[in-house]
Amino acid sequence: MPSPTAAPIQPLYRGATGVSTCFGTFGELVQGVLPGRDGDFLVTLPIARWSMATFQVDPRAPEVRVRPAHKTKAVRLCRLLLDSVGASTGGVLTVDSSLPEGKGLASSSADLVASARAVANALHLDLSPDRIERLLRRIEPTDGVLYPGIVAFDHRRVRLRGRLGSLPTMTIVGVDEGGTVDTVAFNRIEKPFSAGDRREYARLLDRVADAVARRDLVEVGAAATRSALMNQALSPKRSLEAVLRVCADVAALGVVAAHSGTMLGVLLDAGEPGYPERVAATVRACSAISPDVSLYRSLAFD
Question: How far is the CA of 11 from the CAs of 59, 95, 203, in angstroms?
Fold first, then answer.
């Protein structure tokens, strides 16, 4: 039902513009399936790469237009939000992202969240995380990037499982195996995990939650590495063994996977002695595995 404030939206916000952003996540620290029904979960690793959305209201236009034109999911979400408040107006949505698409870095989720926030800012709407979740649920499986910090999230049912906290900044040396993955199609795949696997995922979730609470990067790295190895049964990364050897050679924290994407990352503690030399050594070694190596920085929320 339209809200009581829906009627004045069109004249009041003529030509108004809203801008917002949303960060991405380098794959997932842990992703798997817990025991029981509806057990899907992931643990985010927020990174300093963003989608930025700008929405300019145009009451004379019945439709929402988007630039670039292929960001059609963002258009659908904006229309859902506008309709939910009884706003018949259209407008122009511009999405500018530094997150590569189809790689497992939550580019689509970040686009959607930034777009919803931009529309809300243009129309002065109160947009709670719960409300964003309800909108996202109608579009696609979604990462938990609408919440600040590291969270456990049910990506298939689009609901928060828990807020875990924040970690000191890490550098992630990303190795891209190439190609792209359709996240919607990936999430339709039947998970090959046994009851024993599910119990191990429950232990991994407890382990990473405790490690984040203690700000223990070593334990976080160990949990991420175990999750990357377990994910080989579902979405094997051909370069995982080579990346693990690099991780051991440079004494890194661990390896993080884009479980439904194309990337692996070597986790490095930015506060460790010899950090610059370790980053350089990791980049050199990873460049022998893939021609597509890039650096990312995790976000801290303290």
Answer: 8, 25, 54
